[in-house]
Amino acid sequence: MLKRCIWQAPSPRVALRRHMDAIPMAPPRPAKHERPVVHPMLRLQRQLGNRYVQRVVSLARGTRASVGGTVVQRQPPPTSACPTAVNFNFAGALHVPHCGGAPPRATTNVAGITWSLEPDSVSVDPGSSIAANGRISLAPTQPAGTIKARATGPGGCFFERSFQLLSQPTGIATTTNVSGAGAGDYGGVFDHVFISADGNVASLANVAVGERFTNVPNPPAAVHAIAAPLYPFGGTFTLSTATLTPGATNNWFLTTAGGLGGSLDSVTIGQAGINAGRFVQSASNPSPPQGLPAGFTLLQSLHWFCEQRPSASRWMPFVTVPHSRTLRNVGGVLEFVTAVNGMERVDPYVGATAVFNLTATPASTPRSATGTPAPPARTVRIRADTLPAAMPAGQTLTWMIIGPAHGCSVAPDPADAHAAVLTIGQSAGTVTVQAADGSGVNRARVSVVVT
User: Fold this and answer.
1) In degrees rounded to 5, what are phi and psi of residue 20?
2) pLDDT digits (tens, 9 = 90+) for 13-42
3) Which of 61, 146, 275, 404 is buried most, with the most CB atoms less than 10 Å from its CB?
4) Are residues 188 and 332 in the same domain?
């Protein structure tokens, strides 16, 4: 008997299962080294590709994928992130050499980047570098200006940011007297050219420089009352100064020429407080504290500002500048000299004339004779020394008799600005004659005995 054989196609599910059974699988790893479980379909996708897996899936679902259609896609590899920021752990400019505080460092907002230093307004010295952790090292010969810290991602994209480099002052090259003081003062306006650590004064542009006087009662203060023994002119001298603030808000900023900038340094003293008569012996000043020259010196410590240091130590002293104010006698000519760092500003003395060493010739004389007609009266010549030795233009000495006159009188000698004539009366006694400057502050006296 003939038997008819009927072939029956396997169902899609069976076909899919058989097909999958035919795909070799990697043997399982020991449990202690197992990785996260990967779905078989993903493993199949990775080994045979999207189109093959799509065909298998279509058969399993009883559908046929359209030609060129894609339902299953392989996941694209992750793209690397690009840096979008560069930050620094310092504020303001960096100084060369490094002036203190934490080592300078750059950071960015993604991982896996490569750091580099790039030129900006100046080139990058071969000895300057930035480490993999962003730490910046500057060569001693790195020029001042701006350079950039660049963060480059794995794909080549980058972000960069500039930072400024400045040198630092180490001393003073020259000092100049720019101008005189205003009306009513001795002294003047002074400027310096500073020495830069890199030899280029332009590298000091915008470096903050401040002052502190060290030999005053309270150096950090802004106002200083200075009296004897430091101040020899009597009374108190008030000195107003800048202060060293944590934010560099009360100071100079150096120029590209290495100068102070701003209003420069004004070093003055009031003329009204300087009296030459204080330093010569006379009736008005029987015990002078000293002779001429007389003056005082204040010590100005100049500091420069390193913003990266702790706030209490940002100001770094680098040079001390003497400021002296002196009244001196040069061959009978009085000068007031204001000196800054050895640079003198010489002003003529304009204060009260010192009057001293008053003499009478003769110091003793008989009284004038009586008679009819009266004989000529006897006279005594009175003469004074002064400082300045020559009477200033427009000034004269004032002459008078102090106490009983005994018939005597005194009058200026028209031929000598330093002399007077005492006319002797007809009574005996001691006559005291005084010569004074025009203000009456400085006075000298001499006695004449009339017998």
Assistant:
1) -70, -30
2) 333 333 333 334 444 444 444 444 555 656
3) 275
4) yes
Q: Which helix or strand (DSSP H or E) is residue 206 part of?
A: none
In a domain, 29, yes or no: no
Mean pLDDT value of segment 267-277? 97
Question: Cα(282)–Cα(2) distance, rounded to whole angstroms?
Answer: 165
Is 27 a member of any domain? no
Mean pLDDT of the chain: 88
- Judge if 358 and 263 occupy the same domain: no
As a whole number of angstroms, the distance between CA 88 and CA 136 comes to 10
Where residue 154 sits, what CATH number does that domain have?
A: 2.60.40
Task: Look at residue 94 and tell me whether its pLDDT is greater than 90.
Answer: yes
The reply to whether omega before 310 is within 30° of 0 (cis) is no
Cα separations (Å) of 292 from 210, 229, 275? 33, 15, 11
183 vs 63: CA distance, rounded Å: 107
pLDDT tens, residue by residue, 34-78: 444 555 656 656 666 666 556 655 555 554 434 444 444 555 555
> Buried b / exposed e across 387-413, counting CB within 10 Å, b at 16+?
bbeeebeeeebebebeeebbbbebebe
- Counting beta carbons within 10 angstroms of the beta carbon of residue 353, is it exposed (0 to 12), middle (13 to 18) or buried (19 or more)? buried
pLDDT digits (tens, 9 = 90+) for 413-450: 999 999 999 999 999 999 999 999 999 999 999 999 99
Residue 447 burial (10 A CB sphere; 0-12, 13-18, 19+): middle
pLDDT beyond 50 at 9 = no
Residue 286, pLDDT score: 96
- Given this model, what pLDDT does residue 50 score? 62
What's the token pair of residue 284? 């008005």
pLDDT the model gives residue 41 = 55
For residue 91, the enclosing domain spans 86-166
CA-to-CA distance for 366 and 408, rounded, in angstroms?
A: 12
| Secondary structure (DSSP) of 59-102 | HHHT--PPTT--S--PPPPPPPPPP--EEES--S-EESS--SSS
105, 137 in Cβ contact below 8 A? no
Assess whether 257 and 123 both reside in one domain: no
Q: Is residue 263 located within the same domain as residue 125?
A: no
Tell me if residue 234 falls in helix, strand or coil: coil
Question: Which CATH number does the domain housing residue 441 bear?
Answer: 2.60.40.10
Q: Return the structure tokens found at 32.
A: 């202690």
